[in-house]
Design a protein that fits this description.
Layout (H helix, E strand, L loop, with lengths): L2 H27 L6 H8 L3 H7 L3 H25 L4 H18 L1 H8 L17 H17 L6 H21 L6 H18 L1
Helix pairs in contact: 1-2, 1-4, 2-3, 4-5, 4-6, 5-6, 5-7, 5-9, 7-8, 8-9
Length: 198
């Protein structure tokens, strides 16, 4: 291995360590307490080294959120591919989205700015629309199969996304007084009613 390759590999390793340290700190202390100084201390480098790789904390958060969206997209595709009918695919996709949110709470909070400022300074994340696009495709297929008006697919799928994301957000921000079973039951009933309405 040449000197250039060795330096490149070292840079990639430090960058990955910065992101991992930031995520680990967020899991233990929360996103709000994250700082460039804490990240530097965690990887045992000086703060200027961290700034060599990321302009600011916002850039680190944006990078981690993209990783979260990528992981979510993979889970949604896995769920979709296990089912054959658009109705079953829709149920599976929504369930996968719900499960991801609560198994990866720190990711989800960062991705959608729950309880914190959303990261990215308005930068467009193409991964953001993955869930909406998949439920739109299923919704459109169900509508076509039922002989309903396909022009309603966009509006209907957006309404379902809003309902699912809203339930997750409420549950994450008010865990003390909302039982999880009630919310999952509500989710299942919402999806079932949604499919029947198409």
């Amino acid at each position: 291995m040449g000197l250039h390759e060795r330096r490149q590999r070292e840079k990639e390793s430090i960058r990955a360590n910065i992101l991992q340290a930031a995520f680990t700190l967020a899991k233990t202390e929360g996103w709000g307490s994250l700082s460039m100084r804490k990240i530097a201390d965690a990887i045992e480098y000086s703060a200027p080294v961290v700034y060599d790789y990321f302009e600011n904390k916002e850039a680190i958060l944006f990078e981690i959120s993209l990783d979260g969206f990528h992981k979510l997209h993979i889970e949604l595709l896995k769920a979709q591919q296990k089912q054959k009918t658009p109705e079953d695919q829709l149920v599976a996709i929504v369930d996968a989205y719900w499960n991801f949110a609560f198994k990866n709470k720190e990711y989800y909070q960062l991705m959608f700015g729950l309880g914190m400022q959303c990261c990215g300074k308005g930068q467009m994340k193409k991964e953001f629309s993955s869930f909406q696009e998949l439920i739109y495709e299923c919704t459109l297929e169900i509508i076509k199969k039922n002989g309903s008006n396909p022009d309603n697919a966009c509006h209907m799928s957006h309404a379902l996304f809003s309902a699912v994301h809203g339930m997750i957000s409420i549950m994450m921000m008010r865990t003390a007084d909302i039982p999880s079973t009630m919310n999952k039951t509500s989710l299942d009933e919402t999806v079932s009613s949604f499919i029947k309405s198409l």
